[in-house]
Amino acid sequence: xxxxxxxxxxxxxxxxxxxxxxxxxxxxxxxxxxxxxxxxxxxxxxxxxxxxxxxxxxxxxxxxxxxxxxxxxxxxxxxxxxxxxxxxxxxxxxxxxxxxxxxxxxxxxxxxxxxxxxxxxxxxxxxxxxxxxxxxxx
Amino acid sequence: xxxxxxxxxxxxxxxxxxxxxxxxxxxxxxxxxxxxxxxxxxxxxxxxxxxxxxxxxxxxxxxxxxxxxxxxxxxxxxxxxxxxxxxxxxxxxxxxxxxxxxxxxxxxxxxxxxxxxxxxxxxxxxxxxxxxxxxxxxxxxxxxxxxxxxxxxxxxxxxxxxxxxxxxxxxxxxxxxxxxxxxxxxxxxxxxxxxxxxxxxxxxxxxxxxxxxxxxxxxxxxxxxxxxxxxxxxxxxxxxxxxxxxxxxxxxxxxxxxxxxxxxxxxxxxxxxxxxxxxxxxxxxxxxxxxxxxxxxxxxxxxxxxxxxxxxxxxxxxxxxxxxxxxxxxxxxxxxxxxxxxxxxxxxxxxxxxxxxxxxxxxxxxxxxxxxxxxxxxxxxxxxxxxxxxxxxxxxxxxxxxxxxxxxxxxxxxxxxxxxxxxxxxxxxxxxxxxxxxxxxxxxxxxxxxxxxxxxxxxxxxxxxxxxxxxxxxxxxxxxxxxxxxxxxxxxxxxxxxxxxxxxxxxxxxxxxxxxxxxxxxxxxxxxxxxxxxxxxxxxxx
Lengths: 138, 542
Hints:
Shape of chain A: globular
Oligomer: heterodimer
Radius of gyration of chain B: 62 Å
Distance between the termini of chain A: 20 Å
Low-confidence stretches of chain B: 536-542
Structural class of chain B: alpha+beta
Strand content of chain B: 15-25%
Number of helices of chain A: 5
Largest interface: A-B, 15 and 20 residues
Helix content of chain B: 40-55%
Distance between the termini of chain B: 112 Å
Strand content of chain A: 5-15%
Largest sheet of chain B: 5 strands, antiparallel
Largest sheet of chain A: 3 strands, parallel
Helix content of chain A: 40-55%
Number of strands of chain A: 3
Mean pLDDT of chain A: 82
């Protein structure tokens, strides 16, 4: 969930480069993210989506990341989906607010490219060792 | 003395006898009436003369100034002067004789008494005259004294009036009846009423409006009830109706243990109020500006960083793509002539890497700046956690961390006595770290280095000094020292120019100040003060 198309593209490229071959769906604001999760709006008819992981930016138009996180965690259908906050700020208040709202990991988008790749690889590693609650393995 | 009167018949029998006769002779009217005069008061030797006289009266004669000596009831004798005359009826025939007489004895006595009185009077007059002249002299003295006292009083009154009129505050006095009795020049200026208009008026009505009348009345009542009013901040009204901010003090006036009124002093605090309001407005604006700056710093750090992520990320993508091209081109190069190969190699190996290098280093610098701005904005927000800090140990640890820089040059480090302070540990680490780091970083290359750190305590304020004999700062650059992103001297050391702005911010948050003394080529001394922070109640000095 990323409103900066460049960031979304970089994240995807680096996830792929790290060996992730899962389907990746990019949406550009919080409302779209919820629509995608619930199969509503632009995603009406495609049914409820159950992604393995949500990468969520915070500062977005229409509906920001905090709100998406809050609603996901309040909704029985979506609250078990792991959420990684991937954003530009490392403001302590925002970090703790996200953890309070129930995010699994908070990551700062590093400007340093090597670090960025490393972070994405860590996500890949994370995904490869994490057992999703419904028993599927990545 | 009323005259003694009686009437008598032809044979001398008394017919009427008045009260004065009783008093003179001692016989009552009952005793006297019906008796013959010859049997009562007329002595033997005057009997014949009296009979002749009675006969003469009945013959129509009138006599005055007749002197006799008569007998009184108690046997004593009195001298009398009598007038005798006939009383006639309607046809003018004499029916009775009348005698009116005065007691000459009494007259004589009166005469003597009068003479005595006269003498007494004269003596008295003489005495009184003497006394009077003495009194007069005394009076004259008293008058002179009084005149002098009055003159003094007048001088005093003028002096007091001058004092009152010179007083910068409005001074008003009231009688016990609350009426204004004095109104000085400042009061005229402050409230717009001439003294003549004000005196005699009701103070509480004169300079109030509906909203302040009751309050003013309360103060007046209080002062007259011997409860002074001290520096009450309130509002009164000018003659024009405009409000005047004043500080009011009032107290009862005593004269010989009795409260005869009150004095009220009004200090015009309009200017102070205006200044206060202005200050409050400035503080408010400052706070808003600060908030905006914090907000701005946040936006800068977030929104400026987002494009940087792209710049850096995609320049890395480009680098990867170029590597990809080069690996593929290795095979294709045989199809190119020398010039084409050279041009391609130049573009791929020189132009593109150079461009990417500049982009990346610029992005890196930009990122560092953004980080610096963010750190500074966070510094102002962080809650300080005051604790006792061994500054000497802290300085030693910081210098240990700089062992590499210091060791590289021949540097003598002196750690003087450093007092313990109550401050935020992280903050103190940053301050000493920054200053000592600067000292080490900017040592002169042409002489052995000296770094000295020491401090002294005075009350709850501790002053620390960090001195070096490094390259120093040129006078022209002194104003850049604490300004963000400004760096002085040769730019041969890494840094964003934010170290000293941090230090300045931290020191200020600890209630202190930092200053810098420096001479180019000689060295620099930074001195900063730290005010011990309260550890009670988690006071954050925010």
